[in-house]
Design a protein that fits this description.
The structure holds 2 protein chains of 2 kinds.
Chain A lengths: L3 H6 L13 H31 L9 H4 L2 H27 L2 H31 L8 H34 L3 H34 L1
Chain B lengths: L1 H12 L5 H23 L3 H9 L4 H30 L9 H35 L8 H20 L27 H29 L12 H33 L12 H34 L7 H15 L14 H13 L1 H15 L8 H25 L1 H7 L3 H31 L5 H27 L16 H30 L32 E2 L5 H6 L6 E2 L7 E4 L4 H18 L2 H19 L5 E4 L1 H10 L4
Antiparallel strand pairs in B: 1-2, 3-4
Helix pairs in contact in B: 4-5, 4-6, 4-17, 5-6, 5-7, 5-9, 5-15, 6-7, 6-19, 7-8, 7-19, 8-9, 8-10, 9-10, 9-12, 9-15, 10-12, 13-15, 13-16, 15-16, 16-17, 19-20
The chains are: A mainly alpha, B mainly alpha.
Chain lengths: 208, 655
């Protein structure tokens, strides 16, 4: 792995953010970007399946009948806001403000939980109305796509909680700042995916 | 209670299946007892745990990958010989249709995912960090997770033979047949979960090697100064990254169909079986390049080393590999021209498929040009390379272009012509390449060479057997014999070609046994290689002692050009290092958690196979706990003191 020479040489450059000052940190951040590329492919396949199966309702509910405008609008509002507050948390991290990071991350987690609650409510309502994933090909694709995103959000909430605890214990150093930055990348990525779900699934589904 | 036990035994332990299952049970039992006895009697348990199960060293992980690949080659090969025995004569019923289906399914799946893949990943683990002057891969902990995920995925898949029944839907596992309605029971679930677990590990390998190659090259090694094998792995890693998530998705969808009753690929409820086939091949076609490009990389190193010439057309080699990569994502429909997508779609995919022949042809001519006027030394790796070129080009390449002609494919589709074609690419390309690579890097892995004379016996038996086995199959395809038929009637003229093919298959079996004999003989009669460079080779790994010490490079080398080590030996480059003297080296700690994490994933997989969700919950809880434990770990490196490194280097005669 990294020799000391490589690690100390870049230690004192002031314009480099803290999380990129160690070789380990920059390797992991690049690795995470590359991992996100794999995630893009994963969601692309789920989107492709959804688009192909959109009309396969097999006599069950159509997207037009199923999607609830106030519900998914509020979900979108919660998730987009949480991405904004996560951005502020990263900004506070760059300023070295530990309490700011923790506070904004907790707000982010709260919005994330709010989003998750709304999504669970949506799924339960649908299921109770008979729109389960066993009903039709369309619903299988819908629940798998949106559910995979929801599962990612759930993972993200656990992950952010773990990073907040670590920052509370250790403060902002090369390792915690790297973790904070990476979980931020993940969270913003989930936001991007949601924007596609919002347009491709919900908005389009209300029209077509 | 007793009644339930008997029922369980009949259903899942398959006691009524007869002597094949009983024999396997006994063999597995004896082997397990034998291993445990060996470990206890020779007090090797601690050694196994500290040296191997907990290692994060890329060289050891590579060795474990290759060991697993050879074991799986044996298993897949046994399946193949069972099939060939069945087909040697018409009207044979030595295997029932059901058993035959299971055997061709496990043969295909194991050979591609649990033999070719780990062989490739094993060689890249061993060679890549050494070739770029790095001390390990970018993420050693993740690398160990990748290996153990592959290992337990493969174990889960193999377990199906004696516990619950093997999958029987072919290695492609097409719905609607593999849906719960037509194919109940745990077999297909084994396929799904085994591949899923191993596949996730493979994605992690892709990320790991992309970062390693992009960020951890020694100073001075620009991308265009990398050895060709490293280029092939960089490109392979990108292919893994962009192809494997499609497999993850399609397997998850099939699992959801089977265990939750959804309608992705069912014939009822609005499901679309063709969606599976499209998604599967969006992964599946790049996958064949994932297993062939590293072999191309091996051949490039071997040709240049044993022709004692620099590689001809380096930049054309790189460009053609990139070209193959881009094209490989645009050809998947050629696996099902007969779906009836229409002339326009089939024409597009036919032409894009033929276009792949162009960059591949460029590579072949570059290898030939490298050999041209070189002083060729016909060592074993060079012999495998020389056998590869005609087999791959004529048997694999030319017939591939024939299959790409969509109207003609309506005749060839799913016939033995296709079987012969892809065996010529996968054996003539990948297996020859991996065996060349294994022989080539063996001294770097273990510090002694494999015996040439015994290796030649293995080589000739395997290569001749291979051609005897698969050439007649082109003929059989033309005569109308389709793949996956478990027996055939007399009077069709199929008997003689099939019999010849079977003889060839058993010759390959002899070749494999001779290969094992060669390895065992070489271990028993090893002559220590003290130079570290027995082949008079060209790239950086040969500048190190064999086997390379734990930290690889005592000092980080500075790179001046391609074939750095060759020109240092010839006095054209001066050997230089980043550090003026030996400094302490930062190394990752060994840890047992990757092993445990994959074990928990095995539990999850096992739970899904039998739909016993207690196991799934327990396994996931274990995975989560281990991930949190890792997240809260801040001190996972140690330093090897400079003094210790100096002593090691002195003992190796390097100071």
């Amino acid at each position: 792995m990294a020799s000391i020479a490589q690690e100390t040489s870049s230690m004192h450059e002031h314009d480099v953010p803290l999380e990129l000052t160690t070789e380990d940190g920059s390797l992991r951040i690049l690795g995470f970007w590359i991992f996100l590329a794999a995630e893009v492919i994963l969601f692309s396949c789920l989107f492709a399946t959804y688009i192909v199966m959109h009309g396969m309702t097999s006599g069950g509910p159509t997207s037009k009948a199923l999607y609830d405008v106030p519900g998914f609008t509020l979900e979108t509002f919660f998730l987009l806001t949480s991405s904004f507050t996560c951005g502020i948390a990263t900004y506070e991290m760059r300023r070295g403000n530990k309490r700011g990071v923790i506070a904004w991350m907790l707000i982010t987690i709260a919005f994330g939980l709010g989003f998750l609650g709304l999504e669970i409510k949506e799924f339960v309502t649908d299921a109770l109305a008979g729109a389960t994933m066993q009903r039709s090909g369309f619903l299988s694709a819908f629940f798998t796509l949106v559910g995979t995103h929801g599962l990612h959000v759930t993972m993200g909430i656990f992950w952010m909680a773990s990073v907040v605890i670590q920052i509370a214990i250790r403060g902002i150093d090369t390792m915690t700042s790297r973790k904070m930055f990476i979980v931020g990348l993940y969270w913003h990525f989930l936001d991007v995916v949601w924007i596609f779900i919002f347009t491709v699934v919900y908005l389009t589904g209300k029209v077509l | 209670m007793m009644h339930q036990l008997v029922h369980f035994g009949d259903t899942f332990l398959m006691w009524k299946e007869g002597p094949m299952i009983w024999g396997s049970d006994v063999l597995i039992g004896l082997t397990s007892v034998g291993i445990v006895f060996f470990l206890l009697y020779f007090k090797k348990v601690k050694w196994l745990w500290t040296e191997w199960l907990t290692t994060v060293d890329h060289k050891k992980i590579g060795i474990m990958y290759i060991l697993a690949a050879l074991l799986m080659l044996f298993r897949g090969g046994t399946d193949a010989l069972l099939m060939r025995s069945q087909l040697a004569f018409p009207n044979e019923h030595f295997l029932t249709a059901q058993h035959y289906d299971q055997i061709f399914t496990t043969h295909g799946t194991i050979m591609i995912l649990f033999m070719a893949m780990p062989f490739v990943i094993g060689l890249m683990n061993i060679a890549v960090p050494l070739m770029i002057g790095a001390r390990d891969v970018a993420f050693p902990y993740l690398n160990a997770i990748s290996f153990w995920m592959f290992f337990f995925g493969a174990m889960l898949f193999n377990l199906s033979f004696v516990l619950g029944g093997s999958p029987d839907g072919g290695w492609t596992s097409y719905p609607p047949y593999v849906e719960q309605m037509f194919d109940p029971g745990p077999g297909e679930n084994y396929y799904i979960m085994g591949l899923q677990i191993a596949g996730i590990g493979t994605i992690a390998t892709g990320v790991n090697f992309l970062v390693t190659i992009l960020k951890m090259r020694a100073p001075g090694m620009t991308l265009m100064k990398m050895p060709m094998f490293v280029w092939s792995i960089l490109i392979t890693s990108a292919l893994i990254l962009f192809a494997f998530p499609a497999l993850t998705v399609v397997l998850a969808q099939l699992l959801i169909d089977r265990v939750a009753g959804a309608h992705f690929f069912t014939t009822t409820g609005g499901g679309m079986p063709m969606m599976y086939i499209n998604e599967f091949w969006i992964w599946g076609h790049p996958e064949v390049y994932i297993v062939i490009l590293p072999a191309f990389g091996v051949f490039s190193e071997v040709v240049s080393t044993f022709a004692s010439k620099r590689l001809f057309g380096y930049s054309a080699m790189v460009a053609s590999m990139v070209g193959i990569t881009v094209l490989s994502f645009g050809v998947w429909v050629h696996h099902f021209f007969t779906m009836g997508a229409g002339a326009a779609v089939n024409s597009f995919f036919g032409i894009s498929t033929m276009a792949i022949a162009i960059p591949t042809g460029v590579k072949v001519f570059n290898w030939l040009s490298t050999m041209w006027k070189g002083r060729i030394r016909f060592t074993l790796p060079m012999m495998w390379t020389s056998a590869f070129i005609p087999c791959f080009v004529l048997g694999g390449g030319v017939t591939g272009v024939m299959l790409a002609v969509a109207p003609a494919d309506y005749q060839f589709h799913n016939s033995y012509f296709l079987i012969a074609h892809f065996h010529y690419t996968l054996i003539g390309g990948t297996v020859f390449g991996m065996l060349a690579g294994l022989t080539y890097w063996w001294p770097k892995m273990f510090g002694f060479q494999l015996d040439e004379r015994r290796g030649r016996w293995a080589f000739w038996w395997f290569v001749i057997g291979f051609n005897v086995c698969f050439l007649p199959q082109f003929l059989l395809g033309m005569m109308g014999m389709t793949r996956r038929m478990y027996t055939y009637p007399t009077g069709l003229g199929w008997w003689i070609p099939n019999l010849i093919s079977t003889v060839g298959g058993f010759m390959m079996g002899v070749g494999f046994l001779l290969l094992v004999y060669q390895i065992v003989w070489s271990i028993l009669h090893q002559q220590k290689d003290l130079t570290g460079d027995p082949w008079d080779a060209r790239t950086l790994e040969w500048s190190l002692p064999s086997p390379a010490p734990e930290y690889n490079f005592a000092r980080t080398p500075v790179i001046h050009g391609r074939d750095e080590w060759w020109y240092i030996k010839r006095g054209k480059f001066k050997q230089e290092f980043v550090e003026p003297d030996i400094r302490p080296i930062h190394m990752p700690n060994s840890t047992g958690r990757p092993f445990l994490l994959a074990l928990c994933m095995f539990l999850v997989g096992f739970g899904f196979v039998f739909e016993w969700y207690v196991f799934v919950a327990l396994g996931l809880a274990g995975v989560l706990a281990l991930m949190i434990r890792r997240s809260f770990e801040f001190d996972y490196y140690h330093y090897i003191p400079a003094l210790e490194i100096r002593q090691t280097e002195e003992a190796l005669g390097r100071l």
